[in-house]
Amino acid sequence: MAMAIDTPLPAGRTLKLALDKDEAIKRGLMIVIALYLLVALAAPLYVMLSKSFSTYSFDLAKFEFQVSDSAGNWGDPVTAAALNGELNAIPEEKLGTNSDGRLQATSFFPEFSFRSPVKYKIRGTTPDATYLVGLQLHSGTEWQEFDSNAFRRVMLRPSRAIGLENYATYFSTPTLFRSIENSVFIAVISTIVTVGLAFGFAYALNRSCMRFKDAFKLVAMVPILVPSLLPGIALIYLFGNQGLFKDVLMGASIYGPLGIVVGSVFFAFPHAMIIISTALAISDQRHYEAAASLRASRWRTFWTVTIPGARYGLISAAFVVFTLVITDFGLPKVIGGQYNVLAVDIYKQVIGQQNFEMGAVVSVILLIPAIAAFVVDRMVTKKQVALLSARSVPYQPKPNRGFDALCLAWCALIAVFIIGIMVTSQFAALVKLWPYDLSLSLKHFAFDRMDGGGWGSYYNSIRLAALTAIIGTAIIFVGAYMVEKTEGFRSGRSAFQFLAMLPMAVPGMVLGLAYIFFFNDPANPLHAIYGTMTILVVCTITHFYTVGHLTALTALKQIDQEFEPVAASLKQPLYKLFARVTVPVCLPAILDISIYLFVNAMTTVSAVVFLYSKDTALASVAVLNMDDAGDVAPAAAMAMMIFYTNIAARLIHLLLSKVLIARTQAWRAR
Amino acid sequence: MRHETLAGQPRLPTEVSAMNAASLNVKPAYLNISNVWKAFGEFHALKDISLDIREGEFVCFLGPSGCGKTTLLRAIAGLDLQTRGSIHQGGRDVSTLPPSKRDYGIVFQSYALFPNLTIAKNIAFGLENTKRPRAEIASRVTELLKLVGLPDQGNKYPAQLSGGQQQRIALARAIAISPGLLLLDEPLSALDAKVRTHLRHEIKELQRKLGVTTIMVTHDQEEALSMADRIVVMNHGVIEQIGTPTEIYRHPATLFVADFIGEANKFAANADKGGVSFGAKAFRSAPHQFGPGTPVIAAIRPEDVIPHGPGARSPGAPDIVQQPENLLDVTIGEMEFLGSFWRTRLRGKELGDETLIADFSINAARRLSLAEGGALTVELPEDRLLVFPGRA
């Protein structure tokens, strides 16, 4: 507007609102939750990123020695580099190491004998040169003197440098970088199959008049309630080396890409189905009436009306499935065999080879597709929201015998697949000795007799899930409230919003590894929580933060923006409005967040697999470890325990929702 | 009656009733807004707004959307702080106080009733935490429910009431704490026409009864004219005119006000001494200060055009013709029946290419047998022909 510019603002300070108690509380809370996200997410990720660029090598020029003869006369000081130049004791390529690398000082003295009267001196040529004497860390340029016996225990420590060397190593190691190809291949195939199956399923639910729709919906949700390891175990029972239907594969092996894809389809199916079903549900009856009035064939209508209408849902589902599959760790760990994928590589590098830097590199590489998928999904989701708000007449399917039968057959096929996996797993848990003694027993439920943490791990899981659900819901909801309902402080709020969306893009393995780097550093004041239940709760809340945050935001957006001003004008504190109006009105969403957190805390493996300790072993990790140890039946039994627990939690949630909603949502009924 | 209609100059409130004028002038300013600016980046939503509102007064902020009226209300409420300038309420500087430290009740267009609380609990919301005994709160709620004409509805939920009823509850909740200032942000816009007219009257009554200083934001001129003691007409972040409804209507200070409130014919004209000329004719007009030949805009409201029977120009014409120089012979173009009056489009040689829109009462139309295509003599009364700066 031209008029706005020609009258300049008078000089002076821009006014600022005096803080009142409410505002101070709001900002305080927002800072606390933002700090939480910084400590639990941003800082660990940063540390991990910097770790992936860190290389460690022994810088021999940094150490200087002096050696005496047997009479005690000291010779000239000489650097380790010079000694190595003469002796070639340590070849150049052996100087590279990791953060834990040690190099015995005696390596430079071939004539060394711990009994000789010869004495040794060592010092750094720069203040940052460090070496160990036994367990004691020394540094600095002061000479230190040792007799031969003590000198034996002197170890040089590497120095850290920043560079791309780790990445160079990664890409020059075919066994490592081939995983990228494998991971992308698995994820793409699984995505195509899952989205195709889910589209047919959702289409049948929304567009046909087939029977048993509710039952199919229920069955389709089952995979959400179990860890991703479970389909792996079930598939091994069915098609593995001793599998019942091994011959069906005609020599092909279930261990490898085939098993991973089939299992991935199983656990990713419900996610794709929900998204596509939502997209199909919002389609407009009038478009179909228009197509019919134009005498378009069913086929033509499908391609010109149905598919374009659901395209955002399809794209969104594809990216969600892609991310789920490429970041999943449990399933390829169980059934992947020799077929390496990124998520398992992280585990192998860290747990198997203790090569944390390389683990960080793989993590960063795994982050790239996950973040790309996340960004595309966010862009698409925004467009779909715009589509949703349009006024439309919902589509009403008309009975059509042939089509309905086809739909029924399609859904039945998928239901059989899902139920088949579940039944197999159940059977595996109960059968005495597969496949030789098929009589039933409960002996595989005697977890205390196996490795993996026993029943204690199961109770730990329940504790973790309950704590995550309660604390996580509180943090997530309050955080979303601060983002949605505070005025001003704009940059702070958008930074907060970004942090809240970030967990969606961070694979569990990456988060878990980042936690090791961040919390397992003795210099970190939060080091104390490492190995406790606290870190598991923090990690799990953070891992599943985004979906809860979005649920809370959606609910809060539906609340009148003017409630806060009204309450302030009535001189009522914010907490009163929050407790008496906001929370009761949002209760359905709050309950949804809590059950989501509970179920996921029960089933998650990826993030916590790096973080559990002896006292905090978890059921899902026990499944993994028992399977690893060859106790496959007990692993199946534990996976089923997780399933039962989640079913029970769902039922309790349903009951609780009914009771609470009847009490607090009376106003909804007119 | 003679009117001061010098364009751009302050006028005396000649048509304010004696009692009203006295009561308005005696009371001191309760709310003082001085030199308030609001900047959103480069855009200035409020530009140097200064305004005094007296105790017990009902003031409407009126203007098109984006004129800054809601921004000004939100600054008064402390919801959107002004960038510069100060606001004093009851002698206290509230310029930078947060909403909770100010003294007002507010009603929004959306009602903002708490959906999960009953009507009674909604009204009682502001009364809690005030160390009032429970019984006192309950009796106050009952009293308020009666006051807004909804007794016995206390146990219902907001969703069970109609829009108009919900708005009354919102009002009751706002006045429950006996605020010194009542802010109404387009309170009637979400309601249908019948309910709106009814509620308009009720809110005004209630305000009079309580004597609470009230500011209402509206874009509906009819609402402002019928409810306000004074209207603040705003446009592009500045105040165009402050005055009583009749002042604003009869003596618009600017062309914008003339155009925004009511309707006006606008003609590109040239100033003359004591008048203007447009079309092919010179007219006597309300006094103005423009030098002869200055391009100006002449404006007259459709209902101010006076129809005369044939023979208005004859020497023996009745003395109802006030100013023979302002008589105009026209042909009636389209006639539009608008219920209580006829809207006509008049054309004539003396108007050049211009069309004059005039509203005639049913009676006048019948008396003068007005019909499309007929001839008519009209008068543009001298004091109603207003002159504003600018070119068309």
TrEMBL record, chain A:
Q: Give the family, as the similarity comment puts it.
A: Belongs to the binding-protein-dependent transport system permease family.
Membrane spanning stretches: 29-49, 184-206, 218-240, 260-282, 302-326, 358-376, 405-431, 462-483, 495-518, 530-556, 635-661
**GO process terms (BP):** transmembrane transport
- Where does the record place it? Cell membrane
Q: Which InterPro entries match?
A: AminoethylPonate_ABC_perm-1 (IPR017664), MetI-like (IPR000515), MetI-like_sf (IPR035906)
An example of a Pfam family matching this protein is BPD_transp_1
GO CC terms, sorted: plasma membrane
Domain ABC transmembrane type-1: residue ranges: 180-377, 458-653
Entry keywords, A to Z? Membrane, Transmembrane, Transmembrane helix, Transport
Transmembrane helix: present as a keyword of the record? Answer: yes
Supply the name of the protein.
Iron(III) transport system permease protein
What is the membrane topology listed in the Swiss-Prot or TrEMBL record?
Multi-pass membrane protein
From TrEMBL, chain B:
For this UniProt record, the keywords arranged alphabetically read as follows: ATP-binding, Cell inner membrane, Cell membrane, Membrane, Nucleotide-binding, Translocase, Transport
The record, for PROSITE patterns, names: ABC_TRANSPORTER_1, ABC_TRANSPORTER_2
Give GO terms: molecular function aspect only.
Answer: ATP binding; ATP hydrolysis activity; transmembrane transporter activity
* ATP-binding listed as a keyword: yes
Q: Where would I find the ABC transporter domain in this sequence?
A: 31-261
Q: Name one GO biological process term.
A: quaternary ammonium group transport
The question of whether Cell membrane is a record keyword is answered with yes
| GO annotations of cellular component type | ATP-binding cassette (ABC) transporter complex
Instruction: Describe the family membership recorded for this protein in Swiss-Prot or TrEMBL.
Output: Belongs to the ABC transporter superfamily.
- Classification via NCBIfam families: PhnT2
According to UniProt, the name of this protein is Iron(III) transport system ATP-binding protein
* Lineage summary: Bacteria, Pseudomonadati, Pseudomonadota, Alphaproteobacteria, Hyphomicrobiales
